[in-house]
């Protein structure tokens, strides 16, 4: 079958924002719901505390994001919720009052679109919260509730809060704070479809779908795609699927997934034994054991063969997210490991995504620590920010990095060289994450067509000459050739 994915995603640079932690607005607020006690911005995050980041604050940082080179924003949930991460949805039609409510969101959406930035929202359609009105009615009215059939209730009275009693309704991963919808129920299914449609009609550019693999109802995501694309054929639908996602990437459901199958091997190659195992053994993305160039090439070739090329170009590639420790902490705050991983991110097929703060060297261990507040400018790692700007500009400058073919030219020891090619233009990326040996390669051994190449990025003393390239330990380069 013919696959069709949104063209804009292939050229996008995403920035993932956790709204409570990115920016507080500087405007004067006259909103009683926002006049509340908050945790100090500069303190470490806690599981239940609010820092008070809001959507007007995000809008006020759009110039910073545009200067960085960002063209699309993905925000973790923004709808009304009694949790700082907002995965416990109370009302799918109301933006959380602490974020500024619907007015703040529409101001942000208008401002982002004025800068040609797309906005993708997080859709939590597998489960809701105890505060979701229809479930709350069950808590209040028991078996007399008209919405009883929306959830799988197994006994009375509902044990919604008392951990000493067994939970007697189906909830996500047995977390009684997250009652799970019965997606087979026609009214539930229609309700969720209309939520998806509503926000696309309001102008959002796509949905990132939380734990979509938990929705077992046949045809659910096919219908969701059909109805979203009927409103906006260019809307991006990206699923949170950590492992092999072929089941959902058949062209009838998602345009891409959060590409953790890229994340793990990339960190394992770029950082090697610097990876902090205490931060990576729990999440299922496996940036270990350390890989050499041949091992990395095998992983990448397998990944590139897994899905159709049209899907590869709209995968959401990442190094960090709100669900894993931040890359800077994972690599032991080793700058070279961070730079080499980021270079691979911005030169790989698919849309690169920066987790807010990674570009300024923000550390963060496992949740909730990976959800720290964005630091003040005096704490920014300026060299890291400069390299992010360079690599993003490089990606924007060369269309081969958007949609060009991917070919491994060399993978021996710790030396890895690949090319991205499009209509005669080539971008060649070479790196040596090893700690010991300088690698020297003949350009003829790679391909005789690149002798006149121009070096456009170099790190740690990597050099390109007419007949050879030299990669000292922990170095990398990018060259272009016609």
Structural class: alpha/beta
Strand order of the largest sheet: 8-7-6-5-2-1-10-9
Work out the radius of gyration. Answer: 23 Å
Distance between the termini: 33 Å
Top CATH class of the largest domain: Alpha Beta
How does CATH name the architecture of the largest domain? Alpha-Beta Barrel
Question: If you consult CATH, what is the topology of the largest domain?
Answer: TIM Barrel
Total strands: the figure is: 18
What is the CATH superfamily label of the largest domain? Glycosidases
Alpha plus pi helix count: 17
Proportion of β residues?
Answer: 15-25%
In terms of quaternary structure, the protein is single chain
Biggest beta sheet summary: 8 strands, parallel
Number of domains: 2
Features:
8-stranded parallel β-sheet; about 475 residues; Immunoglobulin-like; 5-stranded antiparallel β-sheet; globular; 17 helices; alpha/beta
Topology of this protein?
Layout: H1 7-10, E1 14-17, H2 19-22, H3 55-60, H4 62-68, E2 72-75, E3 79-81, E4 89-95, H5 101-114, E5 118-123, H6 133-141, H7 186-201, E6 206-209, H8 220-231, E7 236-239, E8 256-257, H9 260-271, H10 277-280, H11 293-306, H12 309-312, E9 316-318, H13 327-330, H14 335-346, E10 351-355, H15 382-397, H16 400-403, E11 405-412, E12 415-422, E13 425-432, E14 439-442, H17 443-446, E15 454-459, E16 463-464, E17 468-471, E18 475-481
Parallel strand pairs: 1-2, 1-10, 2-5, 5-6, 6-7, 7-8, 9-10
Antiparallel strand pairs: 3-4, 11-12, 12-13, 13-18, 14-17, 15-18, 16-17
Helix pairs in contact: 7-8, 9-11, 9-14, 14-15
